[in-house]
């Protein structure tokens, strides 16, 4: 399996492996808000949101917020 195949597999499996909270955070990323504002909305710290965002990115195989939002929209999370 090549690196590209691994990435494609992760993106396909990503939607199923996200926790409920990670799905909420991913949905919030689509809004024009900062991580601090997301944290306030979710009653957690900014560091918690940063950790959850990193976990989401890893699980769905992306590295930017724009890619994560595009992925979420294409998988019906939003």
TrEMBL record:
Task: Tell me which residues make up the HTH luxR-type domain.
Answer: 11-76
Q: Which UniProt keywords apply?
A: DNA-binding, Transcription, Transcription regulation
Source organism per UniProt: Cellulomonas wangsupingiae
Protein name, UniProt field: Helix-turn-helix transcriptional regulator
Q: Does the keyword DNA-binding apply?
A: yes
Q: What top-level branch of life does the organism fall under?
A: Bacteria
Q: Does the keyword rRNA-binding apply?
A: no
User: What InterPro entries is this protein classified in?
Assistant: Sig_transdc_resp-reg_C-effctor (IPR016032), Tscrpt_reg_LuxR_C (IPR000792), WH-like_DNA-bd_sf (IPR036388)
